[in-house]
């Protein structure tokens, strides 16, 4: 499929050619084109080019203007200030470019694919086996899912990896307790033959974990037996592994229920936890030691860094293997890098992980570079994210000071959103089933959008009252904008969306059209920087342009000529399709009726 060339690109090409004609020694000169409030575009590159050529900027700008042909693309071009160029495109060019987007046979709205796509492994949504998911797991899941979908949409091959915590010393305690109390993971409430729910699975795991911990802390003999099971687990004892697998399977029932509530699709094949790299740990350590990247220090295998020191000024190493022979997180993470680079053939490794782990990943990535596993061709990057805060600006906790369970947070958001949907349901004629479904889409969308509309590295306040508000920068505002357009299209009768490039456009039509034209370039920019908050900002601006347009330009009116009605229907239809596609890439649904 051939992507649609944007107006920005067309104008850029035209100005670049005129610059080269005026200054032949500056082939492919960049006019530094930007959107402008004074005109449709402003070119700021002439000042620097004139300085380099020792020319007068205004004279050079005038020469460029003289060489630009005014035609179906450019309506007007003028010199401004010391040598800026203000460019206005024609109404015909706006409508025709949008028409090309609307008729894209692949229904990609003209969004281009990457020129040189590669393979990205993205590590996100990393819950722990036998433990509940809490608010701290929200951002990794939501940001990771959006980045994965955006990268896939622009043509990147994406391999998803959910690096769950399914290994470690706590499993000795759990396995030993379950062996001595074999019915503790039996279903307590599901009927015979009924599928176990995620809540039931987590309830069983919670009960078992608390009982095992109480016994471990109070019974020295049990503690000894539990520690022996850790050795059996690491040695691959079949019976111990079988019991361990029960914990993993029970936890997955719960994980999948939470991800389903989050409206995220997680495949079992994408879940490769810490245990998935056990067979590589010894070789990873051997390779690091033989290459001199890691050295033995006080019995442990360590990697040292000149710029990482503790409060006492002494070097703080990355411990790959402990002095007792056990492996830490570093060994697993380094083995995962080897697997992702050499087996999965990744060009890029993305880790959507809390900013508080930044030092660990800095050390892991540097170790992998020294070992030659990462290089100029293969890069690793942490997409670090900030903390979810309460209204008081402190880390989000329950009134009892406990970490908020993710399912409780989502349930409350859905309840609030359902109440908002119900208020308008009678006017729209929604059934009870539609109210329930839309309440879920609006509630989960509200939580996701609040997260994604904030730059990942920043903390953000979790305020449900604001999140489900119909006003302001919220997903509900965008969802209602989409539903409003769907309502207009349903009321249009025989009138159909049809572009009419020959028509003059009102100012609000132009503003909406010019914003729609940016969608393709915006998505490539979002994908390049892994910044879904830029897509959220674009969609909010799009909905705002729609609101202004709708207030000033009546779409369905007998007073308007048929061509005007069709062209305005075309504009709102393309806006709806762009909102729908953009929101889908953020993992948010857009109901037809709200």
From TrEMBL:
Q: Which GO terms describe its biological process?
A: arginyl-tRNA aminoacylation
Q: Does the keyword ATP-binding apply?
A: yes
Entry's localization field? Cytoplasm
Keyword vocabulary terms for this entry: Aminoacyl-tRNA synthetase, ATP-binding, Cytoplasm, Ligase, Nucleotide-binding, Protein biosynthesis
Q: What class of enzyme is it?
A: ligase
So what does this thing catalyse?
Answer: tRNA(Arg) + L-arginine + ATP = L-arginyl-tRNA(Arg) + AMP + diphosphate
One GO MF term, please? ATP binding
Task: Please report the stretch or stretches of sequence annotated as the DALR anticodon binding domain.
Answer: 478-594
GO CC term (a single one):
cytoplasm
Q: Cite the Arginyl tRNA synthetase N-terminal domain residue spans from the record.
A: 9-89
Record flagged with keyword NAD: no
Entries under InterPro entries matching the protein: aa-tRNA-synth_I_CS (IPR001412), Arg-tRNA-ligase (IPR001278), Arg-tRNA-synth_N (IPR005148), Arg-tRNA-synth_N_sf (IPR036695), ArgRS_core (IPR035684), DALR_anticod-bd (IPR008909), Rossmann-like_a/b/a_fold (IPR014729), tRNAsynth_Ia_anticodon-bd (IPR009080)
Q: Which domain of life is it from?
A: Bacteria
Q: What is its EC number?
A: 6.1.1.19
Assembly, per entry: Monomer.
Q: What is this protein called?
A: Arginine--tRNA ligase
Report the source organism. Answer: Streptomyces apricus
């Amino acid at each position: 499929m051939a992507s649609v060339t944007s107006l920005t690109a067309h104008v850029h090409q035209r100005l670049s050619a005129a610059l080269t004609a005026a200054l032949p020694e500056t082939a492919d000169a960049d006019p530094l084109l930007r959107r402008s409030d004074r005109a449709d575009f402003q070119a700021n590159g002439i000042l620097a080019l004139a300085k380099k050529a020792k020319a007068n900027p205004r004279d050079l700008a005038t020469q460029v203007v003289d060489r630009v042909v005014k035609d179906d693309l450019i309506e007007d071009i003028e010199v401004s200030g010391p040598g800026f160029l203000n460019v206005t495109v024609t109404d015909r060019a706006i409508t025709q470019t949008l028409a090309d987007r609307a008729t894209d046979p692949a229904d990609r709205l003209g969004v281009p694919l990457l020129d040189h796509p590669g393979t990205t492994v993205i590590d996100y949504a990393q819950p722990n086996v036998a433990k509940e998911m809490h608010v701290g797991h929200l951002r990794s899941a939501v940001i990771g899912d959006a980045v994965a979908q955006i990268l896939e949409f622009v043509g990147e091959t994406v391999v998803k990896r959910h690096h769950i915590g399914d290994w470690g010393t706590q499993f000795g305690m759990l396995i030993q307790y379950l062996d001595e109390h074999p019915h503790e993971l039996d279903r307590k409430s599901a009927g015979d033959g009924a599928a176990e729910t995620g809540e039931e699975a987590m309830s069983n795991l919670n009960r078992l974990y608390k009982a095992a911990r109480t016994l471990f802390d109070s019974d020295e003999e049990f503690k000894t037996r539990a520690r022996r099971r850790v050795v059996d687990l690491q040695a691959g004892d079949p019976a111990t592994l079988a019991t361990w697998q029960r914990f993993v399977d029970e936890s997955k029932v719960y994980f999948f229920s939470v991800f389903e509530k989050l409206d995220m699709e997680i495949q079992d094949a994408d879940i490769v936890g810490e245990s998935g790299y056990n067979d590589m740990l010894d070789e990873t350590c051997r390779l690091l030691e033989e290459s001199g990247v890691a050295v033995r220090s006080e019995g442990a295998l360590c990697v040292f860094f000149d710029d990482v020191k503790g409060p006492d000024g002494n070097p703080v190493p990355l411990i790959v293997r402990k002095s007792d022979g056990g492996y830490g997180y570093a060994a697993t993470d380094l083995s995962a890098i080897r697997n992702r680079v050499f087996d999965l053939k990744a060009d890029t490794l993305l880790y959507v992980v809390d900013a508080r782990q930044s030092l660990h990943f800095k050390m892991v990535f540097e170790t992998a570079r020294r070992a030659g596993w990462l290089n100029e061709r293969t890069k690793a990057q942490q997409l670090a994210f900030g903390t979810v805060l309460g209204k008081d600006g402190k880390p989000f906790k329950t009134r009892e000071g406990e970490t908020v369970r993710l399912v409780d947070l989502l349930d409350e958001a859905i309840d609030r959103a359902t109440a908002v949907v119900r208020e308008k349901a009678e006017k729209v004629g929604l059934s009870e089933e539609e109210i329930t479904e839309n309440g879920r889409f609006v509630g989960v969308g509200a939580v996701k959008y609040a997260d994604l509309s904030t730059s990942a590295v920043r903390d953000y306040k979790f305020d449900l009252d604001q999140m489900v508000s119909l006003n302001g920068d919220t997903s509900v505002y965008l969802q209602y904008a989409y539903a409003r357009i769907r309502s207009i299209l349903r009321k249009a009768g025989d009138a159909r969306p049809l572009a009419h490039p020959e028509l003059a456009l009102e100012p609000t039509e132009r503003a909406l059209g010019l914003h729609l034209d940016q969608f393709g370039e915006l998505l490539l920019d979002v994908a390049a920087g892994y910044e879904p908050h830029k897509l959220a900002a674009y969609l909010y601006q799009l909905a705002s342009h729609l609101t202004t347009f709708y207030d000033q330009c009546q779409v369905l009116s007998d007073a308007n000529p048929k061509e005007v009605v069709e062209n305005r229907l075309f504009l709102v239809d393309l806006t709806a399709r762009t909102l729908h596609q953009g929101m889908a890439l953020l993992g948010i649904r857009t109901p037809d009726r709200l």
